[in-house]
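Bumping with the actual sequence this time:
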Amino acid sequence: MQAAMQIERVERDGCPELEVSGRMDSYGSRNIADSMEELMREGARHVRLNLSKTTYMSSAGIRVLVQGFQQFAAVGGTLRIVEPSVAVRQILELAGLGSMMAEPAPAEEVKPETPVQTRVEAGFTFEIHKCSPGARLLCRIAGHPEPLVSEGFGEKDCDVFSVPAGLMSLGLGAFGESYAECRERFGEFLAVAGCAACQPTDETGYADYMVSAGSLVPRLATLYSVSCKGPFEKFVRFDSQAESEPIGLSQVVMECMETSGAELAGMVMMAESSGVLGASLKHSPAARHEAMFHHPEVRQWLSFSPVRSYPRSVLLVAGVAAKLPCPGPLAPMVRPLKRDASLAGHFHAAVFGYRPLRKGYIELEESVKHLFDGGGLQSVLHLLADDRVGSGTGETELTRGACWVGPISRILAPEETL
């Protein structure tokens, strides 16, 4: 009987190497995919697969190798096959994948990852790293959410702008160039690192996204938005300790605010979540005339689950937070994160299917693009907290993740641009 596949991990010349023995069929290939995923999660960039003892490779094995090659390349890394057996070499050459058998790149010189500070709060470890010491964000507010509960939005409320890599933005909007083009599609959106995701309110209901490529930059028509521009000052990793319960979004935001030492800050977060609490519009709020947030009409306008949704998902979160009392220009855009919280905020999340996040220091732009390139966007939500006494569900809960945070130095006047 053919022995089951075995995978042994070794370190050679500072580069992790997986020695694979046995058959790379459909069953065995899943184990290799899991092993490569674990290495990426740990922060490995350059990985070797030693296939000298691999006796067979099916199309399932080829698919796993191609996916791994693409995933590592997307984060600036490499996956290379070393010492392939005769059987493996023949298969790879016939499939046109001979380039994967080239000599691997030397081990990457890793950026020092010693945190400048480590804190333990609520059973979670927070590691704080300096990203761009002294950096500050500029903030621009366009429009106002008041028409949501009054007369509705019209063409005068529409603001159209591009969202390049250096801009973080969130609000109500749609992909397009004008109010007329987007009138029936306005919904929640966020934009980070040249990638934008929208929750259209048209008949499809499917979240859509655009990723910057070359001269292509996403364009949004918005009804209101909050945008921040500039490098983030600090990078924060958080992870649960053994047997720890998930941590609430508001607690993570509070820790990031303490880290920034600011009264007002912009944030981006990538995190693994055990459950999301949020809402999205079912219909575009443009040029409507009927009540929206009155009962029972609210059920026709707003999609909101009384329980957490999207368990075991990955979130890309963008938003702003302010210590109360909030500065005047931003006050209409934020709400207290919890009933007894000293912080207010406005956060949107793009929800993706689960994939493990790499450990250690990660770069914002490449990490966000890698997330979108992997597909699996499920929804875009306005994150909420339901802290009703006795019946409230709570808030979005996280298990581990990474945050980029920066103090906001100035809120621009309406006529100014970022």
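The tokens above came from a reply further down the thread. The longest helix spans residues 26-41.
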